[in-house]
Amino acid sequence: MTRPKILDQPVPPPDHSRHGRVETNAQVTVNTVGAVSNAEIVGSVGPAQNAAILAALKKWRFEPARCGAEPVVADIYVTIGYDSLY
Length: 86
Fold this sequence. Notes:
Elements: E1 5-8, E2 21-30, E3 36-41, H1 47-57, E4 61-63, E5 65-67, E6 70-72, E7 74-83
Antiparallel strand pairs: 1-4, 2-3, 2-7, 5-6
């Protein structure tokens, strides 16, 4: 089995309430066409920013995981990082 590979990972808009680099972890389900079908924040950075992070994660695109030649659904952990502008 091969893991999903990130092809495109848009970041959320800048968080004006924080200073410096912001990173959090999420668990995502990557479906057989490489889209995120479910995402859950593992380390909260705040309710408003969590919503922006989840919206950005739903736009991520992957090469799907494979079992042999067949694409399969996979649950993975990812780190999403972005710069804040405070």
